[in-house]
Each structure stands twice: as structure tokens, then as C-alpha cells.
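Field notebook, page 322. I keep forgetting to write these up properly, so this time I am using the form the group agreed on. The chain and the ligand, 6-O-phosphono-beta-D-fructofuranose, are recorded exactly as supplied. Prediction of the bound pose follows.
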Amino acid sequence: MKRIGVLTSGGDNPGLNPCIRAVVRDGIALGMNVMGIRRGYAGLIDGEISEMDARSVGGIINHGGTILGTARCPEFFERSGRTEAIRTLNRFGIEGLVVIGGNGSLTGASHLHEMGFPVVGVPGTIDNDISGTNISIGVDTALNTILDAIDKIKDTATSHNRAFLIETMGRHCGYLALKSGIAGGAELVLIPEIETTFDEIAHTIETAYIKGKPHCIIVVAEGWKPGMEALAQQLAEHKDLGFSVRITRLGYVQRGGAASAFDRVLATRLGAAAVEALAGGDYGQMVGWARDEIVLTPLKDAIAFEKEISPDLWRLARVMEQ
Ligand code: F6P
């Protein structure tokens, strides 16, 4: 395989540039040309492709975002869009493709594989909802961003004796909320995977107040229903909880920032492993990290089901909420 392409697709994360850097430099080390594809599958279909060299990826390891840009690409979910993409790959003489992204992006990669095009996926999403890997690139950095915010909010919550609802990202997955809730010492974590009633939440806030706690921190995954704002509205109607309630939506700050050391090394390992997998003929696989080593999972299995929340971690969070 003499010429490969690399693209970043879907929601971005802080580990993308370290990963792109590893793909380019490992490919060059193996004697390959590496073509950068801009704006994910949308740019692939439009032929926004140019050759990259070692200098193209100099000075980016400590920058969030993606130098290639990314996009969500609905037309790629149609076979016609994927056919157009393969025509473009052939036109540029690209023989294999590294796709870095979340579930939707890796589903597109799996379709390309089924259409006979050599592709390897790298799990990249702050949600950490991709099975086949213990952790995706960008997650560790996002967790530390959230934890910094929780610590800062705790300061003002304590000063004013308030309860705070803090919403993290995680469209369908409570991983970020659960891990950051444990790390941040939250009184309660609300995640889509586990039902928590309004009465349980109100009881937690009231109990914290009666125990003499100076604040009550509740971390809410954006996928938890009925959602942070609806909960705040309901709580506002309960004047007898002791604490007044405020809300903070962390939003897109969780997707930016310089990657943590862990994420830089993980992204470098997975990016290089993806190139080695292409070179070794291991097409249609996703590279992942498990049991302290690189593992390969067929893309069709990696996208078949979303990773579940650890029951032990959930139990630990409840114990620590005393
Ligand atoms: O998939 C990662 C993610 O950050 C989700 O947690 C979030 O709900 C979604 O992307 C936001 O998507 P967009 O960037 O398209 O608004």
C-alpha cells in the first residue's frame, strides 16, 4: 500500500491533532504518501484532498481541534454518497483510508469496508460510547476540563450555600457525567442509562442541606431525561429544599483544549496502529486500547452496540455521595 488517506469526522475532540500527526509520520516511516482529507466525509466527496508531510503536522500535538477540519455528512449515509467517495479516493490514487471519529463516522467506515475499500477506524469521541476500546481519544482531556469546572463551581456554591446542576456532554451516554461526578465529589450523578426520580433528587438536595453540607453538586449528562432545565424548573417549585438551585451547561468547552498527556500518547499509539493495520492488510478493523495494549475489533462489531456503563462505577458513585 503506497498511498493512504486520513480524515476526521463527526464531533471533534482534543486528541485529533496528535492522532493525525501519528498517522502522517508513521505512514511516511513506512514509505507511504499520506493524503489529508478536509472536512470529513463531506470533503472526501468534494475532493478536498492534499498530500501531507512531516512538516504539515509539526507543532500541532498541543493544539485541540483538527487541522483537517471535520463535519457531519448526512449524504454519506446514502450508498450514492459512499460510491462518490470511493470514486474520489480512486481518482487520487488512495489505496487505504484511516477514519478518526465516533459511532456515526465509524459506521460510514464500516460501509466503505463492505464496499471493498480498505479502511481502518480510530475511536475518537469525548462521549466514550464506542465498544471495542476501553477509552476513545479526547475523553481524558474532556474529563479534566469538566473536573476543573466542577471544582470552580464548588467554590461559588459553597460561598452562597447553593445546589448546582452541572450538565456535561454525552448525547446517549453517561460516562463523562459519572466519571467526573466521582472525581469531583458530586452529591448525585444523573445519567441516561439509569432512571432517577424527581423525589430521589429532591431528597438528595434536602438531605445534603440537613446534614449541614455547604453545597449540593449534581452532575447531569445531557442525555438524561427530562433534562437539566426541566429538572431545575421542577426544583424551583419546591421551596423547602434548603438550598436555592442554579444551573451551568458546560457545552462545547468540553470539546476543546490541548490534549492531556494520556490523550496525546493514546492518540499517537492508535494513529500509528491504524497505519500498521492498513499496511498489514487488517482492513475493516477499529484499533482500540484494552488490557494495556492495542486491540483490533471488526468495525461492524464496534458499531453494533454502545458501550455500557460499569455497574461497579455506578455503585461507587452512590457510596461516595454520602
Ligand atoms: O458526540 C460528541 C458530542 O459532543 C455529544 O456529546 C454532543 O451531544 C454532540 O457531539 C454535539 O454535536 P454537534 O457538535 O454536532 O452539536
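OBSERVATIONS:
- The two ends are 57 Å apart (CA to CA).
- The mean pLDDT is 96.
FOLLOW-UP: compare against the apo run.
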